[in-house]
């Protein structure tokens, strides 16, 4: 019986992660774990695209802060593929609030505040499908089959 469950997920290195110069370390961590980067780009996110990304938070008091931060500088967007990629990436990222993130996780090693927590990863298969389409056209994704 094959217990592998291949999936893809969106990962964003947020502006604070780009500014800290940790893009390579983050990519390296995923690759060393056995995940594959099948799409990658650096971009400056527009407010319109950021609002689409964070649409489930529209109307909440922190929505404008999320959009302000994610559009404050360049980000790196990537599609990561592998066995249970969504779960593996989220575990490697650490808890959303870096104060609670364990050492050895990305947020535990590189972040101190929830508002500047270095990285985003899709939280479910449905979110991954929706979020990947926000950042990548299908032709930009290298299907390594």
Strand segment tally: 4
Give Rg in angstroms.
15 Å
CATH H-level name... which superfamily?
Answer: Nucleoside diphosphate kinase-like domain
What general outline do the C-alpha atoms trace?
globular
Largest sheet: 4 strands, antiparallel
**CATH fold call:** Alpha-Beta Plaits
User: In angstroms, what separates the terminal alpha carbons?
Assistant: 21 Å
Tell me the number of structural domains.
1
Overall CATH architecture: 2-Layer Sandwich
Sequence of secondary-structure elements: EHHEHHEHHEH
Total of helices: 7
* Strand portion: 15-25%
Structural class: alpha+beta
Low-confidence stretches: none
Helix content: 25-40%
CATH class category name: Alpha Beta
Mean pLDDT, all residues = 95
Strand arrangement within the widest β-sheet reads 2-3-1-4
Give a short synopsis of this structure.
Major role in the synthesis of nucleoside triphosphates other than ATP. The ATP gamma phosphate is transferred to the NDP beta phosphate via a ping-pong mechanism, using a phosphorylated active-site intermediate. With 145 residues, this protein is of the alpha+beta class.
Tell me about this structure.
This protein has a four-stranded antiparallel beta sheet with strand order 2-3-1-4, sandwiched between helices. The model has no long low-confidence stretch (mean pLDDT 95). The chain has a single domain (6-140), classed as 2-Layer Sandwich (Alpha-Beta Plaits), CATH 3.30.70.141. It contains seven helices and four strands; from the N terminus they run βααβααβααβα. The protein is an alpha+beta fold and 145 residues long. The relative contact order is 0.25.
